[in-house]
């Protein structure tokens, strides 16, 4: 029997997605507009034999999540802007020590306390560069309640596969929005499990991950000898080694390439009506919903507008943006921040098309009419010269 | 009757009142009832940092087609439970649309001429019949469902049952039925 539709909130969907992905540990500190994730998991974790811990703050929350993951569990935390800022140092630790975990940031207006109950997309660059030092990152951005569920599962899969923290960027609108959804059958989902290294414990010092074979991390307490440190370490032994520039360079480049080498496999986009588009709207998260409405509005009038919706914001979907840049004359980038992703789009488009940005930072969703106004006739009339 | 019967392919409903009146719950109940019918449903909400007071609103869109933009500019149907929310949110109800309001708390003005208006004293009725003003929102949902037929009353009552804590279930079901009765008698 096919599952029947249920009414579900974005934050609930994140929580249920985490459970479906096999997460059995949550630590967090409640903050609007993410609180329903903690609230739901406080109830659900004990039901599935998992643990829920309310911590004293967000720094402790991400630290507890790293600890749980090192002990072998799939673990997550959820927060919003101010808490996400507090977590940055430990997210860097998770990058450095290669600790798989999931951080959900339900974005609200900022900086600081900002607009606690209103949506924003102001943390997209913080997700990329929030922690210090050279590092790579994976960030996924849902635009529906259904995706809050499926992308949370995907986040855990990528975290395990690439041994890295993965950030899910929801927002206040999506987190609190309810939608009728039919969730996928549990058996139909791909769930990546952690596994153990394919060697005897005593041989563990002789094997080393490479970009195409990232070994799973054995849990603390297992027969494998595991060293965990935030210092620069020797990739073979795991032991700190800060005196050798070659060791530092090897680790630094590996941590970055671990994601970049695989970015075409990781990066996902939805392309809608792009086949003959002359104007593309590059939009993500909640704003992509307004953008899609505009594409339908334009197509009904014979205007060749398409949508490129990044589902993976980091690593940046370079392939899809290349495809877009080769095809269209103009790219419109509406976002609930000022130019954060539009700079990135502009760099990737590299002059092949005109990039028009539109930002809104008043805590309100960009509306379809606001985007419609940006679709100017000179962007699609054929006698208009490409820049 | 405005175009709000179950056959309309898209209905946009705005619920507004003051924080603490249960506006979000009212919207979630209607949204859940429509979900059970197999409609596409999006329900959003908007409120400030305070838990009580201030104008708050929730919106629901029920549609046969995919729902992209999830918010509402000019609702087809409004349910309004406070004067402040009326000024801020309910006045945008589209011409030809419908407004259901608490006639003990809201006084509509000329600007809503051309809309179908249904004033019922929900809060006062909840106090008189159920001795609990806190269920005025559910009384209002009962009336809204009875007046518009946008979702079947059985589906809405089932959603009331599923959305309220068990120990308040009976009270809320009574409130829902009271609302339906008041609307059909009005």
How would the blueprint of this fold be written?
The complex is a heterodimer of chains A (387) and B (186).
Chain A: E1 6-9, H1 10-20, E2 25-28, H2 35-47, E3 51-54, H3 58-70, E4 75-79, H4 81-97, E5 101-109, E6 115-119, H5 124-129, E7 138-140, H6 145-162, E8 165-171, H7 172-176, E9 178-181, H8 245-260, H9 263-266, E10 269-272, E11 279-282, H10 286-300, E12 305-310, E13 312-314, H11 318-327, E14 330-335, H12 340-349, E15 354-359, H13 368-372
Helix pairs in contact in A: 1-2, 1-6, 3-4
Chain B: E1 10-18, H1 23-36, E2 40-46, E3 55-63, E4 77-80, H2 83-88, E5 98-102, E6 116-120, H3 122-130, H4 136-148, H5 153-163, H6 169-185
Molecular structure report:
The complex is a heterodimer of chains A (387) and B (186). Chain A is α/β, with parallel strands linked by helices. Helices cover 37% and strands 19% of the residues of chain A. In chain A, the strands form three sheets. In chain A, strands 2, 3, 4, 5, 6, 7, 8 and 13 form an eight-stranded mixed sheet that branches. Chain A has a five-stranded mixed sheet with strand order 10-12-11-14-15, sandwiched between helices. In chain A, helix 1 (10-20) runs parallel beside helix 2 (35-47) and helix 1 runs parallel beside helix 6. The longest helix of chain A is centred in the middle third of the chain and has 18 residues, at 145-162. Chain A is globular and about 70 Å long. The termini of chain A are far apart. The relative contact order of chain A is 0.12. Chain B is an alpha/beta fold and 186 residues long. Chain B has one domain: Pyruvate-ferredoxin oxidoreductase, PFOR, domain III (Pyruvate-ferredoxin Oxidoreductase, domain 3), CATH 3.40.920. Chain B has a six-stranded mixed sheet with strand order 2-3-1-4-5-6. In chain B, helix 1 (23-36) packs across helix 5. The longest helix of chain B has 17 residues, at 169-185. At the A-B interface, strand 6, strand 9 and helix 10 of A face helix 1 and strand 2 of B. Strand 9 (178-181) of chain A pairs antiparallel with strand 2 (40-46) of chain B, so a sheet runs across the interface.
